[in-house]
Amino acid sequence: MRAVGWLFVGLSAVFGVAALSLGFAGVSDPVRALVVGGCACLAIAAPALITACELTAGNVGDAQAGPMLLAGESSGLEVLADSAYGSGQHRAHLLAAHHVAVIKAIPLRETIPGGFSIDDFVIDLTSRIATCPAGQTVPINGSGSAKFGPRCRACVLPSRCTATRHGRDLTIHPHFALMAAARRQPETESFQRTYTQWRPMVERSLAWLVRKGNRRVAYRGIERNRIWLSHRVAAVDLGRLLNLGLSRNPDGWTVA
Question: Could you tell me the strand order of the sheet in which 129-131 lies?
């Protein structure tokens, strides 16, 4: 399996913030693509060579810019990422491209701390109905809204569901099924094992990239900083290759 991916790093620019996107692959037989981190999400496969990069304006979302680095790649990639890449639209894009998403889910907002979330409701997308934990069922309208309204007044569980006198309202995302499955995925042993295995390498590679003042972009404007980023990436890759034993012989360049 050939692995590629992308990285977003918050870089302080003269005006605003630039989003940095990198794709990684290994010299031989890479096995994973990984995107993780809080302010940094890194796609990587051993031995951590950056094979593609992109720099976008700071107001471009992570999940919007990420797929640019997957364009033209063969299907069947296992893409690991943090929740910044967990939107339903992005997951649908990966599914349509026949990639396997191993991406942290976007945390649910709690209506009441410790109360019922949308995952405690039964959402039937085929029949377009939603059933609450107390057994009340309402239709899901064309805009994806399910309003329980008056049914909440006689409910025995209001303290765990809603504090509004109008009752509980749900908004069913167009990609609800993908998002719900993603929230269950981190509970699996395979997800936890894979994510734990690859994250340390990600953090190390990120440290190489931004050290010696390179967390801050060098110029004003996207195009100039794209050139700067390409040079920075080339320098990081060269250093990595030298550490791996890069040398030249009569047959060309080799890595030990």
Answer: 122-124, 129-131, 137-139
How far is 62 from 17, CA to CA, in rounded Å? Answer: 13
Structure tokens at 108: 């649910």
Nearest CA to 71 among 87, 52, 85?
Answer: 52
Compute the distance between CA of residue 170 and CA of residue 152 in angstroms, rounded to an integer: 13
Global pTM reads 0.74
Helix ranges, the chain (H): 62-65, 88-96, 176-184, 189-210, 222-243
Q: pLDDT tens digits for 24-66?
A: 443 333 333 443 322 222 333 445 667 667 777 777 777 776 7
Structure tokens of 56?
């976008």
Would you kindly state where each structural domain of the chain is located, as residue ranges?
8-107+178-255, 126-171
Residue 244's CB: how many other CB atoms inside 10 A? 13
Element containing residue 251 per DSSP (H, E): none
Burial 73-97 (b: 16+ CB within 10 A, else e): beeebbbbbbbbbbbbebbebbeeb
Is the sign of the CA dihedral 70, 74, 79, 85 positive or negative? positive
